[in-house]
Structure formats: structure tokens, C-alpha cells
Amino acid sequence: MSSRYSHAYSLAFEISSGDSDGEGVSGSQLRQAIISRLSKLSDAELAEACGAPFDTHEVE
């Protein structure tokens, strides 16, 4: 059987808030910002925005 790998990627997005440290940002706001960012990207733009994985490990 061939090897399988798990890859971790990151995706940048932004949220405006009144807190300088972002502590007041809720899970709902995070979800909305992520969904908004994803909905504006084509598949090619999403692949470019994520770039290469920052971590990879073999899975069993």
C-alpha cells in the first residue's frame, strides 16, 4: 500500500474590532470572516493564498 500524508495549511483573513489585542472577537465573527474570505476566492486563488503546507506527517 502507498504512503498517505496529512498536510497543515494556513489561510490569512482579517477582522476589524474595537480591541487592540483582538480579545473581543467571537467564534461567530471568526467563522463569518473565514467564510467571507473563502467565498471571494477562486480555486486557483485559494491554492495561492494557502501556499505550501507548513507541516506534513505520514499517517497510518
Secondary-structure topology with pairs:
Elements: E1 4-8, H1 27-39, H2 43-50, E2 55-59
Antiparallel strand pairs: 1-2
Which labels suit this protein?
60 residues, alpha+beta, 2 strands
- Number of spatially distinct domains: 1
Number of strands: 2
Report the helical percentage. 25-40%
Mean pLDDT: 96
Class derived from helix and strand content: alpha+beta
Q: What would you call the quaternary organization?
A: single chain
Number of helices: 2
Terminal CA distance = 11 Å
How would you describe this structure to a colleague?
The protein is elongated and about 50 Å long. It has one domain. It has 2 helices and 2 strands; from the N terminus they run βααβ. It is α+β, with helices and mostly antiparallel strands and 60 residues long. A two-stranded antiparallel ribbon has the order 1-2. The protein has helices at residues 27-39, 43-50, and strands at 4-8, 55-59.
Outline:
The chain has two helices and two strands, in the order βααβ.
